[in-house]
Design the sequence.
């Protein structure tokens, strides 16, 4: 075990971050099963209302916010140092590690001791313990140091390689962290202006103000989760198949669309909020549909790469599909993640339609949407990539490899049963984030049918998650089994001889993004403040 802390500082940094991320995944997953069973009608497991909201907060924060962030930080440094082969600023990484770990511990303590039951969206006027907000602020500010370290490392590489194009995976990592900075500036403003005065001084809050700043952050946040997954698809799938990515240019254009359009679209989370001009909601909806096209480009690019490889292996019209290495968990996991993303994406397009949003908002449909996006497209990709990281980063062999082969399939079967039934329950009106679903006996029977079937799916993918966590932890402790090498040789299937073009001009895309963010948010914020704030006192149950 001690060897985990040996080697270059960059690798130790990545191991700590990825190891911590997997612990958070296990904890958050456990909370997920508990709250799932507790809200399933007829289940023998029933927690109190206070515990339900506490563990639901833990489920969201540990998985959606912390697992993703720590994994992405570790993955970034692991990949950038290997691909760019340029030093990264260690001091910045050290500051980043200390601040993010401290932030995570503070937030976790407030949740685990029952002082924060505000869910991961921490909507005002619900109030949590100040540790929760201070922890969140430290987590975010600390992560910026990793972003700065990557940006500096890239600039150093650019100086040494003035004419070379940016490798696709580095383009993806840069896009990820640019989107993160775009996303987190508004939430830092939200925490400093609204939440800390509320938590520390009991100041009153304006609900719309808090929500508007939150969703200014909340939507680009989802692309911060998604972009590293897409980066891994672009990087590892062609490498595994021994072919070039179908189109590098298309991949970079997709990343550029994410940089430009990820942020000025947050109002699609507020389509039902009063006090926001309908024309602005419409503008954000149109921009959302544009960012959706970046995901379609990605799907096309990956599918064309698969077909290229399958045909090269001798497959015909549809025969190329069976020529693909479906028994390799890294490959199958990533493709199943992409397929699940197809369903997540379609439900997302439905969510962003003004009229349809009125049907699905705050129902369990949304739960179906985000378990196929962040819960599978992202989480499954990170899990299966970890099999390769076990060998390449942790110097371990993967135990129980035959179970690792089953894990992605089991996960996706469970997720589909779960998400489909939760989506149907949502269409029938079943709410999400609600402790008592009986509504005093008035709830329609059909909700119960769907929610019970959904719980079966939930238990199946929880089992798949447990298999993954056990394989990961036991592989670290036991070190027997198979070596899974996927990252080692830089990127042999990417021809890097091309000169850099306007597509590689990242600065230009940042400028365009800033202009669009100003256009997308200046009027909503102007309207918000010019119509005057309606302040209400905070609500703090159990503090
Ligand atoms: Fe979303 C709510 C709209 C993408 C996550 N989203 C959420 C929430 C989360 C979340 C966590 O407009 C809940 C927040 C909360 O707690 O309140 N979302 C969208 C849209 C997209 C989208 C338009 N979401 C994501 C991603 C997420 C994520 C990515 C995480 C990583 N979402 C919404 C809206 C709401 C929302 C509203 C608010 C709802 C409400 O009222 O509360 C788009 O980016 C999606 C684009 C994707 C596509 C799909 C491309 C096609 C593919 C298919 C390929 C596979 C094939 C099969 C064809 C258009 C990838 C291949 C076959 C083989 C054999 C290989």
Sequence:
């Amino acid at each position: 075990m001690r060897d985990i802390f040996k080697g270059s500082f960059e690798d130790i940094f990545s191991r700590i971050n990825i190891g911590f991320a997997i612990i958070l995944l296990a904890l958050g997953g456990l909370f997920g099963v508990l709250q799932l069973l507790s809200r399933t009608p007829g289940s023998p497991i029933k927690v109190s209302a206070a515990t339900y909201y506490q563990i639901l907060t833990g489920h969201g924060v540990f998985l959606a916010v912390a697992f993703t962030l720590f994994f992405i930080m570790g993955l970034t440094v692991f990949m950038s140092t290997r691909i760019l082969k340029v030093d990264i600023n260690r001091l910045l990484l050290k500051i980043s590690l200390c601040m993010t770990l401290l932030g995570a511990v503070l937030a976790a303590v407030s949740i685990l001791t029952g002082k924060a039951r505000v869910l991961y969206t921490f909507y005002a006027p619900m109030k949590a313990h100040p540790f929760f907000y201070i922890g969140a602020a430290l987590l975010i500010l600390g992560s910026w140091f990793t972003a700065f370290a990557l940006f500096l490392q890239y600039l150093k590489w650019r100086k040494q390689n003035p004419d070379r194009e940016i490798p696709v995976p580095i383009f993806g990592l840069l896009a990820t962290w640019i989107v993160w900075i775009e996303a987190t500036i508004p939430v830092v403003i939200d925490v400093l202006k609204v939440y800390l005065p509320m938590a520390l001084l009991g100041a009153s809050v304006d609900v719309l103000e808090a929500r508007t700043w939150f969703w200014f952050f909340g939507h680009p946040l989802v692309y911060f989760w998604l972009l590293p997954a897409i980066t891994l698809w672009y990087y590892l799938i062609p490498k595994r198949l021994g072919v070039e990515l179908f189109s590098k240019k298309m991949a970079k254009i997709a990343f550029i669309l994410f940089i430009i359009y990820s942020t000025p679209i947050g109002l699609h989370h507020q389509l039902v909020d009063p006090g926001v001009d309908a024309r602005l909601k419409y503008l954000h909806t149109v921009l959302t549909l544009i960012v959706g096209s970046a995901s379609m480009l990605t799907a096309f690019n990956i599918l064309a790469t698969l077909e290229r490889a399958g045909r090269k292996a001798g497959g015909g019209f549809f025969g190329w599909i069976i020529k693909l290495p479906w028994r390799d968990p890294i490959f199958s996991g990533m493709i199943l993640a992409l397929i699940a993303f197809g369903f997540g994406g379609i439900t997302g397009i439905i969510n962003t339609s003004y009229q349809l949003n009125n049907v699905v908002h705050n129902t369990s449909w949304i739960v179906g949407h985000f378990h196929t996006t962040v819960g599978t497209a992202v989480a499954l990709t990170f899990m299966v990539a970890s099999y390769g990281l076990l060998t390449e980063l942790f110097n371990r062999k993967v135990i129980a490899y035959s179970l690792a082969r089953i894990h992605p399939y089991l996960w996706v079967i469970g997720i589909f049963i779960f998400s489909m039934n939760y989506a149907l329950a949502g269409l029938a009106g079943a709410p999400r984030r609600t402790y008592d679903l009986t509504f005093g006996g008035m709830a329609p029977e059909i909700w119960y049918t769907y929610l019970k079937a959904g719980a079966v799916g939930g238990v199946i993918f929880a089992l798949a998650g447990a298999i993954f966590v056990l394989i990961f932890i036991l592989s670290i402790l036991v070190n027997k089994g198979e070596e899974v090498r996927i990252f080692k040789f830089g990127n042999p299937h990417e021809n890097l001889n091309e000169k850099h073009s306007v597509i590689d001009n990242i600065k230009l895309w940042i400028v365009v993004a800033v202009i669009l963010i100003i256009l997308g948010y200046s009027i909503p914020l102007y309207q918000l403040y010019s119509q005057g704030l309606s302040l209400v006192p905070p609500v703090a149950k159990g503090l």
Q: What stands out?
A: The pocket of heme-as is lined by residues 121, 222, 225-226, 268-269, 288, 291-292, 295-296, 299, 303, 321, 335, 338-339, 341-342, 345, 348-349, 351-352, 357, 361, 366, 369-370, 373-374, 378 (CB under 6 Å). DSSP finds 14 helices and two strands in the chain.
